[in-house]
Write a structure and sequence with these properties.
Blueprint lengths: L1 H24 L2 E6 L12 H21 L4 E6 L8 H4 L13 H14 L3 E2 L3 H9 L5 H12 L3
Parallel strand pairs: 1-2, 2-3
Length: 152
């Protein structure tokens, strides 16, 4: 439940606290941390993936609401990034060799935000995955993800 409170509730509360001031000022920037996990169900980290889907859709909706007031909102959807996430989340199975540095992900995110890009997936295989899941049945995707991530 704490994951839902941090990833969803905190996002909404902070936005309701800060975005009205940005609207009043006529400019502002909001970077919402989503994940490539937000594009499909991810067995064994289902709550995490669901909260990130919430964050991504929240960002897209908020972006549409505040664009006319000069406020830019971007959903950052990184994939495997060098951090302590995999250890803390007990999700080492999702750790990959081609992880991007946090500094590179941050650089790409800020660049996308300043351009007004509403979603940024900062690595190639994440963009491919996000595209493929639009065309493949969810049940098939979930089946393969579950098989690959199943604990030994």
């Amino acid at each position: 439940m704490s994951q839902v409170r941090v990833n969803c509730e905190a996002m909404v509360r902070l936005s309701r606290l800060l975005v009205p001031q940005m609207v009043e000022r006529g400019r502002g920037w909001v970077l919402v941390l989503g994940s490539t996990a937000s594009f499909q169900p991810v067995p064994y980290i289902s709550t995490y993936a669901a909260t990130k889907a919430f964050d991504r859709f929240f960002a897209l909706g908020l972006a549409a609401e505040v664009a006319r007031f000069g406020v830019k909102v971007t959903a950052l959807c990184p994939g495997p990034t060098e951090s302590e996430f995999f250890d803390v989340a007990r999700a080492k199975i999702f750790k990959s060799r081609g992880m991007q540095s946090a500094a590179e992900v941050a650089r790409l995110a800020v660049s996308a935000l300043t351009r007004g890009q509403r979603t940024i997936i900062p690595y190639f295989s994440g963009r491919v995955t996000a595209l493929l899941v639009r065309f493949l049945p969810v049940r098939l995707i979930t089946y393969f993800v579950e098989r690959a991530a199943r604990p030994a």
